[in-house]
């Protein structure tokens, strides 16, 4: 058997090497390319390093979400999806058409979403970048559309938010990617704020946290050092949003406005040798506000909803995460989503005078209040007097005693 000489083998390797390098650094997606949502395959467009992927993720039985995710970790954590989080059926497609349009069609061929390219130019190719940014580019490599300009609830290192950018809108729940009840935005005065929204719309309702920069903010920057900060147009830092940092060379990072209204910075070790004592999982590095239960207290605007739904109250656990509890005699309206409030777990009784007072009792709840819901206040009254009052209110034990309208809102 004849073998190639050592010299010819070296020549072959020298010619092959540049080709391999080129394949790693350039993975453009050509026109007339598409992906299909399917149960039996997991096709996606990956970034050169393989850190990120673009494609369909199955969220529930037979239903898929078009998304970008971290592809090298088991969780496949999603960092972007089209606004609204619409799920599509098996057989739906995302296609970069021959004329440069980027469209998501459902299994019946109906358009669900498309990239807004109005007046942008002619798209020549698409690319999934190692930053986590998916771009549609022209022949001269200018970005005509990019996912970084249309964030959902997450930002990544190198990404910025400015007055012209879309704001971050929290998802509805941990597993429901439709729009939720909280929003992060840089307003027209340059103030960075977190606010509740007029759900189910996404227009801002009431601010519950701000960066305290008194205006003048130009953009929010998430830099490669892991810092997130608000800066002025001249580049000066007005306010630090996160209090800790981690190296992006050792950790995957993401900052997300979560469904509970808290903006958190997470890190995930890239490998076992550079964990810095952290588990191979997402760990919270920093978050704002410090206590959202207290941040959402509003004694003036009765109709503003807080973190928890009706007839429930918000407490912050030892893990610094908020949760919603029900008062005695109430149960969760939706056990799968405890933010949806509570409902009565007893048969309502009529109160027809003093003789019926024995049918009612008082339940003591320490350090709980429903802010802004009191409609009457009474001095020098007893518990027995409260039980003789009609059923459609609750009382709070403080001086003076107060009656509260139902449903109970903004409980803390």
From TrEMBL:
Signal peptide: 1-23
Disulfide bond found in the keyword field: yes
Superkingdom to which the source organism belongs: Eukaryota
Gene3D superfamilies: Bulb-type lectin domain
Region (Disordered): 389-412
SMART domains: B_lectin
Sequence ranges assigned to domain Bulb-type lectin in this UniProt record: 30-149
Keyword terms: Disulfide bond, Glycoprotein, Signal
Bias (Basic residues) ranges: 396-406
Pfam families noted in UniProt: B_lectin
PROSITE patterns xref list: BULB_LECTIN (PS50927)
Protein name in UniProt: Bulb-type lectin domain-containing protein
């Amino acid at each position: 058997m004849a073998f190639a000489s050592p010299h010819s083998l070296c020549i072959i390797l020298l010619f092959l090497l540049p080709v391999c390098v080129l394949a790693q650094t350039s993975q453009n997606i050509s026109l007339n390319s598409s992906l299909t949502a399917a149960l039996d395959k997991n096709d996606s467009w990956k970034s050169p390093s393989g850190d990120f992927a673009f494609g369909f993720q199955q969220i529930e039985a037979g239903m898929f979400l078009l998304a970008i995710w971290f592809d090298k970790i088991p969780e496949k954590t999603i960092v972007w999806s089209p606004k609204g989080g619409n799920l599509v059926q098996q057989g739906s497609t995302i296609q970069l058409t021959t004329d440069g349009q980027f469209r998501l069609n459902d299994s019946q061929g109906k358009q669900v979403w498309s990239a807004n390219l109005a007046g942008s130019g002619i798209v020549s190719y698409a690319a999934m970048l190692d930053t986590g940014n998916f771009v549609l580019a022209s022949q001269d490599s200018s970005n005509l559309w990019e996912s970084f300009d249309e964030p959902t609830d997450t930002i990544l290192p190198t990404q910025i938010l400015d007055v012209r950018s879309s704001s971050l809108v929290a998802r509805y729940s941990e597993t429901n990617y439709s729009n939720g009840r909280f929003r992060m935005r840089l307003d027209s005065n340059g103030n960075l704020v977190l606010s509740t929204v007029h759900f189910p719309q996404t227009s801002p309702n009431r601010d519950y946290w701000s960066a305290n920069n008194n205006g003048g903010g130009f953009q929010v920057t998430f830099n490669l050092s892991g810092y997130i900060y608000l800066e002025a147009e001249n580049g000066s830092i007005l306010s630090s949003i996160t209090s800790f940092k981690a190296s992006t060379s050792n950790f995957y990072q993401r900052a997300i406005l979560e469904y509970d209204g808290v903006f958190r910075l997470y890190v995930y070790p890239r490998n076992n040798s550079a964990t810095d004592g952290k588990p191979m999982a997402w760990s919270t590095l920093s978050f704002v506000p410090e206590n959202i239960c207290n941040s959402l207290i509003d004694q003036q605007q009765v109709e503003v909803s807080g973190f928890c739904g009706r007839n429930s109250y918000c407490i912050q656990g030892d893990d610094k995460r908020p949760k919603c509890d029900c008062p005695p005699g109430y149960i969760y309206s939706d056990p799968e989503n405890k933010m949806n409030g509570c409902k009565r777990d007893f048969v309502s009784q009529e109160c027809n005078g003093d003789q019926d007072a024995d049918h009612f009792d008082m339940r003591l709840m320490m350090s709980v209040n429903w802010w802004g819901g009191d409609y009457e206040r009474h001095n020098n009254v007893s518990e027995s007097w409260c039980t003789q009052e009609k059923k459609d209110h609750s009382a709070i034990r403080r001086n003076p005693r107060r009656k509260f309208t139902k449903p109970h809102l903004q409980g803390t």
